[in-house]
TrEMBL record:
<dbReference type="InterPro" id="IPR037123">
    <property type="entry name" value="PRibGlycinamide_synth_C_sf"/>
</dbReference>
<dbReference type="InterPro" id="IPR011761">
    <property type="entry name" value="ATP-grasp"/>
</dbReference>
<dbReference type="InterPro" id="IPR016185">
    <property type="entry name" value="PreATP-grasp_dom_sf"/>
</dbReference>
<feature type="domain" description="ATP-grasp">
    <location>
        <begin position="111"/>
        <end position="319"/>
    </location>
</feature>
<keyword id="KW-0658">Purine biosynthesis</keyword>
<dbReference type="Pfam" id="PF02844">
    <property type="entry name" value="GARS_N"/>
</dbReference>
<dbReference type="InterPro" id="IPR020561">
    <property type="entry name" value="PRibGlycinamid_synth_ATP-grasp"/>
</dbReference>
<dbReference type="GO" id="GO:0004637">
    <property type="term" value="F:phosphoribosylamine-glycine ligase activity"/>
</dbReference>
<dbReference type="InterPro" id="IPR013815">
    <property type="entry name" value="ATP_grasp_subdomain_1"/>
</dbReference>
<keyword id="KW-0547">Nucleotide-binding</keyword>
<dbReference type="InterPro" id="IPR020560">
    <property type="entry name" value="PRibGlycinamide_synth_C-dom"/>
</dbReference>
<keyword id="KW-0436">Ligase</keyword>
<dbReference type="InterPro" id="IPR020562">
    <property type="entry name" value="PRibGlycinamide_synth_N"/>
</dbReference>
<comment type="similarity">
    <text>Belongs to the GARS family.</text>
</comment>
<comment type="pathway">
    <text>Purine metabolism; IMP biosynthesis via de novo pathway; N(1)-(5-phospho-D-ribosyl)glycinamide from 5-phospho-alpha-D-ribose 1-diphosphate: step 2/2.</text>
</comment>
<protein>
    <recommendedName>
        <fullName>Phosphoribosylamine--glycine ligase</fullName>
        <ecNumber>6.3.4.13</ecNumber>
    </recommendedName>
</protein>
<dbReference type="InterPro" id="IPR000115">
    <property type="entry name" value="PRibGlycinamide_synth"/>
</dbReference>
Length: 429
């Protein structure tokens, strides 16, 4: 098969790394890719949001399968566009329709979907700009802390946890009246704060059948001890000790099954990955949010644990034959440590040459924000630059292997958290 993978981050490098291991892959194109995908696939200078160019490339290169990594082209309707073209109407695509992608594209749509389909989630109300007074009055009746979420896509930055009523009121005004997150906060979901332990559960679905992939726990804050600003993710661990078989069974019965049934009942075309952000409170799961793609950096810890043929999984999703696919998971631990540009998630400098080791053991290096300069050197090009995944029979061994490799990578002002997985390690001891 000729396969086109859209995206340029660590998630996409992990996808590419897994796809090229399959005997079913003849050629893999990654658009636009990064310095890491360039070593194992063919990078293509296409924008993920240039639907016409993507369509033209699919036709000129006889692409048999399209895999969409990030959420933005899905929310903007890439799948619908390709299916509306006569020559790509039946092209197998891994990614939901625009309506399906609204589960991530609109927090309000997502919450309403959960409510309709009996999926446990936090209590909420949604307010738009002309409802600011009602929103402020609603805040006065709520318990603290309280969560404010921009309705639309805000690059992972549109969620605020407010500790005081004054902070909540100020933030609501900034979001609705001052467009703090641009168009994304023209509507704001005000939500009950859920306490407990967060967990990411990943589901592959063809809209009817589903497979539950390995779970993961990620680390969103820039600072050790989960302090400082939110980022796109500083690390991940899989499996997760508190997500035992009984808990995952509850997730399946109370969340996965009603979600998939709801998609089918509401005739929402959904062939792709569903990333369910959960809160585990006293052994009971509640949904924090849906995302309509795999997480990053969780993908870098989850995919290496899939032992069965990955392209077979992708084909099953895209062609509606997922029920015939046998998913095999490794019991081994995978832990991911993300190395970032100094200053991230604020402003940072780009273009520093990266020193990478020639030989590594029991780990793999995934590129995220990297490119090659005119001298052919690999340089930092984004905030999150490198994700290192270590493997081991136990969590401690996997972490040791990840950090050993991280210690062999350097560039000017590189930063990473040294406490990834330590909270989970304490739970296992």
């Amino acid at each position: 098969m000729n396969i086109l993978l859209l995206g340029s981050g660590g998630r996409e490098h992990a996808f590419a790394w897994k796809i090229v291991q399959s005997p079913e892959c003849s050629r893999l194109f990654v658009a636009p890719g990064n310095a890491g995908t360039a070593d194992i696939a063919e990078n293509v200078p296409l924008s993920i949001n240039d639907f016409e160019a993507i369509h033209g490339f699919v036709m000129s290169e006889s692409v048999d399968l399209v895999v969409v990594g990030p959420e933005e082209p899905l929310v903007k309707g890439l799948v619908d566009f390709l299916q509306s073209q006569p020559d790509t109407a039946t092209l197998p695509i891994v990614g939901p329709s625009q309506l399906g992608a609204t589960l991530e594209g609109s927090k309000d749509f997502s919450k309403r979907f959960m409510q309709r389909n009996g999926v446990p989630t936090a209590a909420y109300e949604t307010f738009s700009t002309n409802e600011i007074e009602a929103g402020l009055a609603y805040l006065e009746r709520q318990n603290l802390p309280i969560v404010l979420k921009a309705d639309g896509l805000a690059a992972g930055k549109g969620v605020l946890i407010c500790q005081t009523l004054e902070e909540a009121k100020t933030s609501l005004k900034e979001m609705l009246l001052e467009a703090k997150f641009g168009d994304a906060s023209s509507k704001v979901v005000v939500e009950e704060f859920l306490s407990g332990i967060e967990l990411s559960v990943f589901v592959a679905t063809d809209g009817k059948s589903y497979k539950i992939l390995p779970e993961a726990k990620d680390y969103k804050r820039i600072g050790e001890g989960d302090t400082g600003l939110n980022t796109g993710g500083m690390g991940a661990v899989s499996p997760v000790v508190f997500a035992n078989a009984d808990f995952i069974k509850k997730v399946e019965e109370k969340i996965v099954k009603p979600t998939i049934a709801g998609l089918e009942k509401e005739e929402i075309d959904y062939k792709g990955f569903l990333f369910i952000g959960l809160m585990n409170k006293d052994g009971e799961p509640s949904v924090i949010e849906y995302n309509v793609r795999m997480g990053d950096p969780e993908t870098e810890a989850v995919l290496p644990r899939i032992k069965s043929d990955f392209v077979g999984l992708l084909k099953g999703i895209a062609t509606g034959t997922l029920d015939r696919y046998e998913l095999e998971i490794s019991p081994e631990y995978a832990t991911t440590v993300v190395m970032v540009s100094g200053g991230y998630p604020g402003s940072y400098e780009k273009g520093f040459p990266i020193s990478l080791p020639d030989n590594i053991e029991k780990s793999v290096i995934f590129h995220a924000g990297t490119s090659k300069n005119s001298q052919g050197e690999i340089v930092n090009q984004g905030g999150r630059v490198i994700a290192v995944t270590g493997f081991g029979k136990g969590l401690d061994e996997a972490l040791e292997n990840a950090f050993d490799t991280v210690g062999k990578i350097s560039w000017n002002k590189a930063y990473y958290r040294r406490d990834i997985g330590q909270d989970i390690l304490k739970l296992t001891n």
